[in-house]
Amino acid sequence: MPWSRGEDFGPDYEWSPEEASLTAEARSALFVNVLTEESLRHAPQEHVLLAVSR
């Protein structure tokens, strides 16, 4: 994201999903990616998904 699109938000600012410029599908894909990455980090090294991704 370009720095020119960034903003400084105050501590009382509450984000709303309507502000996102991503489609619902893109947000879902990013969410799943974060969940997967977080889960695989704690998985045993012989986990099937880790073996396939190498």
Question: Could you give a short description of this structure?
Answer:
The protein contains two helices and no strands. With 54 residues, the protein is mainly α.
Describe the structure.
The protein is mostly helical. It has a domain at 22-54. The chain is 44% helix and 0% strand. The chain has two helices and no strands. The longest helix is centred in the middle third of the chain and has 18 residues, at 24-41. It is elongated and about 45 Å long. The mean pLDDT is 76.
What is this structure's SSE topology?
Blueprint (H helix, E strand, L loop, with lengths): L23 H18 L6 H6 L1
According to DSSP, the number of beta strands is: 0
Strand portion: under 5%
Task: Please state the CA-atom Rg, rounded to the nearest Å.
Answer: 17 Å
In N-to-C order, the SSE pattern is: HH
Oligomeric state, counting identical vs distinct chains: single chain
Distance between the termini: 29 Å
Core attributes:
54 residues; mainly alpha; 44% helix
